[in-house]
Amino acid sequence: MKIEIGKKAPLFELPDSDKKIVKLADFKGKNVVLLFFPAAFTGTCTKELCQTRDELSLYNNMNAQVLGISVDMPFTLNKFKADQNLNFPLLSDFNKEAITAFGCMYDVWSVGLKGVAKRSSFVIDKEGVVRFAEILENAGDYPNFDGIKKALEGLK
Question: What is the DSSP letter of 88?
């Protein structure tokens, strides 16, 4: 499925790193930044999420909830979150439901692994409408954080 700006975001329910179910619908009334990433403990993913950690107050000040999503198991995400002192939820899309719904899944990734999340970012407004979407083909590329912040600024 191709995500279109101005359309409703697909809903999902995923376990977080503490094995609690998190629903996108729970954040109605708040802006949401979804950061899909290929794998915990990899270079670019660690850099991306640590930058997000360091700038979290900026997102909080724009009434935005950041959610990181990968196909890693909750146990792996829990260790990754603790090791990197991440201060926002990490969700496990182990069954590949969200990456399928958001159209951001590699058919084949590194070393032949299949069904891994493409590095992607989405801004969803308070009503559940997509206001920014970026799906990167190269896992080594870095998200357009300026585009994410500009989209959030436009929602004030």
Answer: S
The residues near 6 (Cβ < 8 Å, ≥ 6 apart) are: 129, 130, 131
CATH assignment at residue 39: 3.40.30.10
For the cut 90, the answer to whether the pLDDT of residue 40 exceeds it is yes
DSSP character for 36? Answer: E
Domain presence at residue 73:
yes
The pLDDT, as a whole number, for residue 110 is 67
Is 0.85 topped by the overall pTM?
yes
Q: How far, in Å, CA of 99 to CA of 6, rounded? A: 19
Average pLDDT, the chain: 94
Active site residues: 45
* Residues 51, 38: Cα–Cα separation, whole Å: 16
The single residue listed with the structure tokens 């000040």 is 61
Residues of the domain holding 61: 30-153
What is the DSSP secondary structure assignment for residue 154, as one 8-state letter? T
Residues with Cβ within 8 Å of residue 12, at least 6 apart in sequence: 23, 24, 93, 97, 98, 101
Return the sign of the alpha-carbon dihedral for residues 119, 61, 32, 81: positive
pLDDT in tens, 88-118: 999 999 999 999 999 999 886 666 777 899 9
